[in-house]
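Hey, sorry to bother you again with one of my protein questions. I've been puzzling over a protein and I'd love to understand its fold better. Take your time with it, there's no hurry, and the full record follows here:
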Amino acid sequence: MARTRLRRPASSGAAALRRFQEKAGLDGGELTALAADVDGLPAAGWCAGAVVLAGRGPYIALEHATGWALRYGSYDPEAADGEGRGVELPREKWLPMGADTVFDLASITKVFTAVAAVQQIERGTLELDAPVTRYAEDGVPAPDHGITVRHLLAHTSGLRAELPLYEYNTAEHAELLWREPPLTDPGESYRYSDLNPLLLQRILERVTERPLDVLVRDGITRPLGMDRTRFCPPRGWRARIAATEDQRKPWAKLNRGLVHGRVHDENAYAMAGVAGHAGLFSTAYDLAVLCRALLSGGAYGQARILSPSSVALLLEPPGLGLPAGDRARWFTGSLSGRAAGHTGFTGTSLVLDPVTDTFLVLLANTVHPVRTPADNTPRLTAAAHLAEAVLA
C-alpha cells in the first residue's frame, strides 16, 4: 500500500494518458468506454453534467468532464404538456463542467462524519460499543433505547430514515433527535438513516467541544491537502460549483428557488449548512485523495489520518460508515466482494476496492433542474468498466 501522492499525466495528450493507464495496470479501452458512457449521460437525461475519475494505486488513469455545471434557471412543471421541463438560462450564462468543478456531496458527507468518529475512537474520547446516551447533552431528554455508537456507524440503530428538522427551530433539534425511538431493536437489522450521522455529529461536538466543520477540516481535509472540500463554500467559488435543484413544493420540502452554491439537503440547510449527513462540497480529485488515503491504510504522503486497524474497521464488510461487500453491491456491481463506497442524493458517488487497489469517483448533478426517480444504472455501468479494466 503505497503512501505516494496521487499522480496525474504530465500532459493531456493521449500518449501520456496511455502511459499512465499502463503504469496503473488498467486497460485503456475499458476506460475509454467508461468516458464515452459518461459523455452520453446528459443527453440521456440522467444529469446536466458529470465528472468521472478513475485510478489504481497512485495513478489517475481517467479524469473526464462532460456537460454543464449550470444550465437551467428554474423548472416548469406544466411545460411539455404537463410532463415538466427545465427552463434554460440564456446560453452565455451556462457554466461548463470541468474536472475541477465543485459538487454538493449530499450523503457522501456521512463518510467524513464516520472518519471523524473513528478518529475519536482511536483517541479514546469515544467508545464504539458505548450507549449513545452516555454522550447526550446536559438537560436534553435522552431515553436509553439500547443504541450504541457502533449501531449509528453501521446503520443498525433501527431509527427511521429522517426527521423533518427543517420544520422546527434549531433549538429543538437536539431533543427531537435524542428522544426518537427506533422502529426495530438496535442491532437487529440494517436501516439506512440520516439520524445516525446526525446523532454522531452531536456526540462528536460534545466530546471534542468543537463543531463538525472544524473536526473535518483539522482532522481530514487539511492534513490531506483537500483544499476544495468544505462545508458552506464561499461565494467566490460559485462559478465553479455545480448547480442543483429549483427547490419548490410539492417536489421539494422547501421553497428556495434554484440552489447553486448552497447546500441542497433541506435539513442541512436548516442547520446552517453543517450537518453530519449532508453539507460538504468537494471535487472528484479531492475525493480521490480520500480514497487513496483509505486504500493506503489511513496515510497519504506525509499525513496520517487513521491507523490501518481503524481503516479496517471502516472498510471490512459490511462496513462501518461506508457500505462494503454485499451491502454495497447495488452500486459497486462486479467489483470485488470487498469494494466499499457511498452515494449521494445529488448524483454523487465514490467507490474504492482494497482487493484491486482501485478507486472510482462519479459526480453528477442529477437533480439539476429537478429531482428525478432514482436510476443507479450509470453507477453500476461505471463500476463494471473499472472492474473489466483491471489487468493482472
